Amino acid sequence: MPATDTTRGPAGTAVLPALRFENVVKRFGDHTVLDGLNFEVAKGERVTLIGPSGSGKTTILRLVMTLEHLTDGFIYVDGDPLTHELRGGRRVERRPKDVARLTTKIGMVFQQFNLFPNMTVLENITEAPVHVLGRSKGEAERRARELLDQVGLADKAHAHPTRLSGGQQQRVAIARALAMDPEILLLDEVTSALDPELVGEVLGVLRDVARSTDITMLIVTHEMQFAAEVSDRVLMFDQGRIVEDAPPGVMFSDPGEERTQAFLQAVL
């Protein structure tokens, strides 16, 4: 299928969006969570999804990670159909190896840290680069130590996750995601499982990642100040649809939709 709409780069070359959702539908039984969802995320763009619990935000991230099965529609990564494509006029599933090739471009940090308790911090970070990307152990460990230094945990390489605070575990999870050198980073309520005093340290690391890299980010969060600081665009979701799409300066100071106004009044 011809992939997607494009924008133009500095030299007039076509630049495909990092992510595109085309008529995406997701149902759980008789319950429709997403119904005809359409939006794009440009390369290097930071887009935050806000809205009440149950509005479909996390489902979007899980569909991109192929942790949930797409009911209908298409998701594109760099213009390539992720899990389904049109072939002979029919919507068909892509081959697992094609899906796997695209998902190596995507990293995700979850609400829960999902670290392997029987492995050290260093082993948690190097496991996937070695076994999925085929990197040598030495190369993977060098990169892991660089990332541990970046997230402020250089001295915890040989500790086990159970000996770390929740904030430290989440910082390890961020380093683990970055170790795969993803082009796209998905962040799913990464501070929701933390005690309030630990939230700042994790958000500080993510602010640094946003400032110092060109990774495309799709973020689900209830931390509105964080969303305002790192986002290029903010999308307000309600009942599986986009209610409003605006830059953070507009979304948080002068939202145009009554539903957005009511939601922000409740959470700010």
UniProtKB/TrEMBL annotation:
One of its GO terms (molecular function) is ATP hydrolysis activity. Keywords: Amino-acid transport, ATP-binding, Cell membrane, Membrane, Nucleotide-binding, Transport. Residues 19-264 form the ABC transporter domain. It is a peripheral membrane protein. It is found in: Cell membrane. Gene3D superfamilies: P-loop containing nucleotide triphosphate hydrolases. GO terms for cellular component: plasma membrane. Pfam families: ABC_tran. Belongs to the ABC transporter superfamily. This is Ectoine/hydroxyectoine ABC transporter ATP-binding protein EhuA.
